[in-house]
Write a structure and sequence with these properties.
The complex is a heterodimer of chains A (334) and B (316).
Chain A (H helix, E strand, L loop, with lengths): L3 H4 L8 H29 L1 H4 L2 H10 L1 H15 L7 H19 L2 H26 L3 H20 L4 E2 L7 H7 L1 E2 L3 E2 H18 L2 H11 L1 H6 L4 H26 L2 E2 L8 H10 L11 H20 L7 H23 L1
Helix pairs in contact in A: 2-15, 2-16, 5-10, 5-11, 5-13, 5-14, 5-15, 6-7, 6-8, 6-13, 7-8, 7-13, 10-11, 11-13, 14-15, 14-16, 15-16
Chain B lengths: L5 H4 L3 H7 L8 H4 L15 E10 L2 E11 L4 E6 L5 H8 L7 E6 L2 E2 L5 H6 L2 E4 L11 H5 L14 H16 L17 H13 L5 E5 L7 H16 L3 E5 L3 H7 L2 E6 L2 E7 L5 H14 L4 H9 L14
Parallel strand pairs in B: 3-8, 3-9, 6-7, 7-8
Antiparallel strand pairs in B: 1-2, 1-4, 4-5, 9-10
Helix pairs in contact in B: 7-8
The chains are: A mainly alpha (334), B alpha/beta (316).
């Protein structure tokens, strides 16, 4: 309690417009940034960014990290973080490969992969909440643990998955809707709706926001803090396993270092989307747009005539610019 | 510990009301109080604590605490930092489990009390700003921990927004058109936050209202409003436990004051029989000399009102 609260000056008068802008500042900010980047690419590389081919390409590659980013958003809103999802992607695929080889069923393999992802998430959640170690530290540990487990279980080998492509569920995960639209994108859209509903229209999301904003209050008001945090880790584990399935089935190959390289783009998508690293604030909408911004940079850099060497430079610039804008919007409107 | 018989401090509610000022019911927050839903059976206390003990990591925070709370009664809880006030109320609200002892609601023993269970039994707590989520909209704060939802846990957001808007107009006195159920708490003034914290506690038909340091950080005017609100609790036939550092605030609204000292009850003092000066002396005594002996506590608690101040004698 801060005694200064009583004596502080009253907040400045609020107009209805400011109230609206204040409520939606973050969403407006990310939308403006998204449109600015898009227009920039159209102006600089019209031939590429006015054709549908580049968008079909984004629609296939962005979900590989966009799906995880949306569920990671919820973890971060609740005040935790999960850095182990790249390893969960690979560990889930171990479940797929073993089950598929044992039973010959792709469908059972998919269920096994999702189950392994859930268990990995459960392990993260249990260690974080019951042993009481910060999730940053725990998931750095489990990131090594899950990757190590993957390498040991498959003995470092890669697996060809070519024969899975005849299964109906293969088409469902990584086929083309109407022969054009990648199923990865359809999956991303469906899961975006699921994530939005869970976060904004379900007890889980309500509890996640309160826990991330004020954990003390959450305890006093009887919110099931432990169950909520664990469940969010489990959901992220399942999402990571699904992303692992999509990535591997698309290239019909599983290699045990799969998922490496997804960590930073995924985190970048979440933070570009306006989610606060301190918890209590964030949106699925922001992460969704953030994922496509991050996903567009690499192709965009090449399309505007720069070499691929500029990619990281632009990643850095865009992440910093977006996060700075969010911070300034927040200070301006609250 | 010998508690004075209930009749000694359990004055009839009507007598107290006439002594105070019922005219102040015009306060919109007081108007939000509905009459007590279920008064306990005759002769039963709303709440009884028996032999409650609690320790944290080897530190005995509460030791053999006995207290009760009648209907239409406001009990003030006083004590220095570390006396165990906060732990005691967290046991009543189900945040902490006692190591030993019993909790009775309306004469019925309740074991394994959780926050949710305590709420079902009609216990609500005003934690002031500490229990508000700054970055969340008003409606999410009002319904924190008990969101209205369907069987699968999906929120009925429309219902919650509408009820928040009603509460804002009727009970919180938020007349500004720019404050909507979607306004985030961060932008509210201290008084607005206080209104939010109180209305949140009252909206859900509480019979026992616990106010934890409610005047901390409030302006004089806001404090005055809060004290009138506590008087309204008694008028509505409900009960309150009022925790504060400030003996002046507690004395002005409480029927009875319980003094906690290092985890034990140092004494219970009906405000009808002890003047503020006498209580101040007692508090000073407790702070300086530690706990009373059994006889001294008994003597102090049962002293007839006309007796002269004798609390400045040496103890221990």
């Amino acid at each position: 309690m801060n005694p200064a609260v009583a004596t502080r000056t009253p907040p400045r008068p609020r107009s209805a417009l400011t109230a609206f802008t204040s409520t939606w500042a973050s969403q407006i900010g990310i939308t403006v940034a998204f449109c600015a980047l898009w227009l920039g690419f159209i102006v600089l590389a019209p031939s590429t960014f006015l054709s549908d081919r580049i968008y079909l390409s984004f629609a296939q590659t962005t979900p590989y990290f966009g799906i995880v980013a949306m569920f990671l958003t919820m973890v971060i809103i609740a005040g935790d973080i999960d850095l182990s999802f790249p390893s969960e992607m690979a560990l889930g695929m171990v479940g797929f490969v073993f089950t598929w080889q044992a039973t010959g069923s792709v469908e059972l393999g998919i269920l096994a992969a999702l189950g392994v992802g859930a268990l990995a998430g459960l392990f993260n959640g249990l260690v974080v909440t019951y042993i009481g170690i910060p999730s940053l530290v725990v998931t750095i540990g489990t990131q090594f643990l899950f990757r190590g487990l993957t390498l040991v279980l498959v003995n470092g080998k890669s697996y060809a998955l070519v024969t899975t492509s005849t299964a109906p569920s293969y088409q469902l995960l990584v086929g083309k809707l109407g022969g054009i639209i990648p199923m990865e994108f359809v999956g991303l859209l469906i899961l975006a709706v699921v994530a939005w509903v869970l976060l904004n229209r379900h007890r889980l999301g309500q509890n996640a926001y309160v826990i991330g904003d004020n954990r003390l209050a959450a305890g006093l008001m009887g919110i099931p803090i432990r169950q909520t945090r664990i469940l969010l880790f489990v959901l992220t584990g399942v999402a990571a396993a699904l992303a692992g399935l999509m990535t591997s089935l698309q290239i019909v190959n599983f290699y045990p270092s799969m998922g490496d390289g997804f960590l930073l783009p995924t985190l970048a998508a979440v933070f570009v989307g306006g989610t606060s690293v301190f918890g209590g604030r964030g949106s699925v909408y922001g992460t969704f747009l953030g994922a496509f911004m991050i996903g567009a940079i690499q192709a965009g850099i090449v399309a505007v005539g720069l070499t691929d060497y500029y990619t990281n430079l632009f990643y850095g610039a865009i992440v910093l610019a977006a996060v700075s804008v969010h911070a300034m919007l927040q200070r301006r409107f609250e | 510990m010998t508690l004075p018989p209930a009749g000694e401090y359990g004055m009839p509610a009507g007598e107290r009301e006439s002594a105070r000022q019922p005219a102040q019911l015009a306060n919109p927050i007081i108007a939000a109080l509905e009459p007590a839903a279920a008064p306990p059976p005759k002769g039963e206390k709303r709440l009884e604590l028996r032999h409650i003990s609690k320790s944290f990591g080897g530190v005995q925070v509460l030791q053999d605490v006995n207290m009760d709370l009648g209907s239409s009664e406001v009990v003030g809880l006083l004590g220095d930092n570390g006396a165990g006030k906060s732990t005691l109320i967290k046991i009543i609200t189900g945040v902490h489990r006692p190591d030993a002892g019993e909790i009775l609601f309306g004469g019925r023993r309740v074991g394994g009390l959780t926050v949710q269970r305590a709420r079902e039994l009609g216990v609500e707590t005003v934690y002031q700003e500490r229990a508000l989520a700054d970055q969340l909209p008003l409606w999410r704060n009002i319904f924190m921990g008990r969101a209205i939802s369907g069987p699968l846990g999906f929120l009925k957001v429309g219902d919650m927004r509408r009820m928040t808007a009603e509460l804002m107009g009727e009970s919180m006195g938020f007349t500004s058109a720019v404050l909507t159920p979607d306004t985030v708490v961060k932008g509210l003034s201290g008084g607005e936050r206080q209104g939010l914290a109180i209305v949140r506690a009252l909206h859900f038909h509480a019979d026992i209202i616990i106010l934890d340091e409610p005047t901390m950080g409030l302006s004089l005017k806001e404090t005055e409003k809060l004290l009138r609100f506590v008087e309204g609790i008694r008028t509505a036939g409900k009960s309150a436990i009022f925790i504060d550092h400030n003996i002046f605030h507690v004395y002005s609204v409480a029927d009875r004051i319980i003094v906690l000292d290092r985890g034990r009850i140092a004494g219970q003092f009906p405000t009808s029989r002890y003047s503020l000066d006498e209580l101040l002396d007692i508090m000073r005594e407790v702070a300086a000399g530690g706990t009373f002996t059994e006889q001294e506590r008994y003597r102090l608690a049962d002293r007839p009102p006309e007796a002269t101040t004798g609390a400045s004698e040496e103890h221990e």
